Hints:
The structure is a homodimer.
Chain A: H1 13-16, H2 43-46, E1 56-59, E2 81-82, E3 91-92, H3 93-99, E4 102-109, E5 112-118, H4 133-147, H5 174-178, H6 196-204, H7 219-222, H8 240-254, H9 258-267, E6 276-279, E7 292-293, H10 296-307, H11 316-324, H12 328-332, E8 343-345, E9 348-350, E10 358-362, E11 366-371, E12 376-382, H13 390-408
Antiparallel strand pairs in A: 1-6, 2-3, 4-5, 4-12, 6-7, 8-9, 9-10, 10-11, 11-12
Amino acid sequence: MTDRVLDGVTSDPVAMGWMQGMPPPLERRIVAAHADHMRFPTNRYAYSNMREFLPTLNVARGQGAARALPVALRDDIDAIVFTPLGDGAPVRWDDGLIGNYTDGIVVLHRGAVVYDRWFGVTGPQSRHIVFSVTKSFVGTVAEMLIEQGLLDPSAPVVDFVPELARSGFGDATVRQVMDMTTALDFSEDYTDPTSGIGAFSAALGLTPRPPGYAGPQDLYAYLPTVAKAGTHGERFTYRTCNTEVLGWIVARIEGQRLHRVLSDRLWGPLGLADDADMLVDSAGTPFAGGGLNPTLHDLARFGEALRLDGAGVIPPAAVARIRAGGDRAHFAQADYPQLPGWSYRSQWWISHDAHETFSARGIHGQTLHVDPAAEMVVARFASHPIAANGANDVLSLPAWAALAEHLQRG
Amino acid sequence: MTDRVLDGVTSDPVAMGWMQGMPPPLERRIVAAHADHMRFPTNRYAYSNMREFLPTLNVARGQGAARALPVALRDDIDAIVFTPLGDGAPVRWDDGLIGNYTDGIVVLHRGAVVYDRWFGVTGPQSRHIVFSVTKSFVGTVAEMLIEQGLLDPSAPVVDFVPELARSGFGDATVRQVMDMTTALDFSEDYTDPTSGIGAFSAALGLTPRPPGYAGPQDLYAYLPTVAKAGTHGERFTYRTCNTEVLGWIVARIEGQRLHRVLSDRLWGPLGLADDADMLVDSAGTPFAGGGLNPTLHDLARFGEALRLDGAGVIPPAAVARIRAGGDRAHFAQADYPQLPGWSYRSQWWISHDAHETFSARGIHGQTLHVDPAAEMVVARFASHPIAANGANDVLSLPAWAALAEHLQRG
């Protein structure tokens, strides 16, 4: 990134003309071989069109009826004013959306759509990559398996995936993987191509591999190479490789690949309205840690199901375990100054605030935020220039809180 | 290919275990980088799962209701016996399906499903590549545009695509492209990687490019390089590049890419039940000549619409022009000994037989066969080891004729 980054208006992908024209002129193309699909500002087009650039699997909605989402739009939300984290000047709600490079946002209150906005190339039918929000879908399924007695969270990972015996996961438990308290030689620094997540991405094939690349060719070839560093179960450290292991466990238990598990366990039973796309590696393995591309309304429906204790599909006890959160002392050892007192549980972020809010979070601003006290769900797609969510939390977290307070007032 | 080719039973992709296991063992993987998805016998899995290996666009069905397909299955079809082309011994209908490496087949009689069979990994929800059957969708849309006065078939191609002025298409008309009577230096020999279709495929990126490839990077960069060879309008020669040009014209007129045109013009109005996948090149151009992956029932619905004079969606005059066929003398100059007296019109194959049958045909056995006299539509997916349809016509054409006769008897 340069010092001067296009803002939320000037980076609008329609205004910039990405992929417009038949064919688009060379300077307006998004070329996967150049990794344009993962780079700002071309990501503002690409994140709503990932299947155009990469192989994908279909997460099928099944043949049933979609769960209705009543619409009761309100016109009093854009004028909400909130104070950003830190010492920023007050910001209007609608300006905050631009400030965070929002591609789409839907707010449910008591189950009805009270607000939606679409930007750039993104609309209600867009399947937008949600990156690590994917993890929360996987964690939810894992909790469902626990509730059914099919998965013992205290069992060793290697009971399900013996291929990992000699890796850093060799003496980890399922719960440690679910709550990301494993101790591994794996850094999640998105700005460092030599980090663990860099090697992970090369194995996955999300972007072109370096010339002469001789590393692992797929996710399940990569995971056994992750070494241990420290002692499991002592602290929370966010590492995407944990979710690939959890996805592997879930797929082994269910006897089918993760995209079909999500379809059978969640998409069909919850009445999600549209198919989703899921990124896949060269061995046919769905990218459990970040490959899901749902519609925004389906993301909101999923959040609403969590708000409603599982909506008759996810066992209430499974939802309760998620919402109760993880070990806050473990979380406090990680460096999240904007998330004081939070914890991480079963691939969800738990705030432990007065509203007992909890969230699914993905890089570049993907968010599913559930506020039980305010009976509110916020689903947001974004394409922020900065991957780490610390960059957008400054505006996002106080915006959600101000909206909740506003809706509670009636 | 070797002298010994697996037969329709031994090449079953489930029996062969392709992509089974999490992860599949190396010897059971289908790797796009090795072109496995386009090679027998791995194609028997891949043709029903192309989006797992290649980037795709979504052909959206829209939000309306699907057109109902009544089901009235008959149990007297498998025992039909027919005589293969040439001097073969009589063959049972169900044995013929195996002989032609069928992946799925649906037969409509008077609009109802009277027969269906599924093989290997292919089922009613599978989106199977139909290769050049795609062309007939494009040609149908072109005829719709002609009927609306938006496209003059006698106009020069360059009126719509000036980029082709210096190519072999520079003095061709739209009709010559539609009916493939252009004279071009382009061979459609699928077994010769140095042929025109080989260079075309490299530009498209359907399979990995040779090391050091420095040719065109996408379809619309390739088409202007096609040279003229002979005189347009004198004979039919099957060349896929014509359809890319037609798709380009259609997209220019409609002001949107072809996958959206197909969605708006056909998928939505015809009430097709499911989205389809469409292969796309690195410039975002859908592969008009062969990139469509619909469900088999939707393919059958499209054929039924053609049988019913457009079903209120395609103007009857457009359908009539297709069904009337093209110039039989032009066709006779091409080498199709199994298709005597046929013609090619607007990207459809017209038999001019007593039943006035017409077909959409794609390599490896993809077929949409319409028999107006017998009120019959046959939609078939296949993964024959040999690309050219001459290999499966030996069994297919007499099978369709015998079935038509059988259904006509009541």
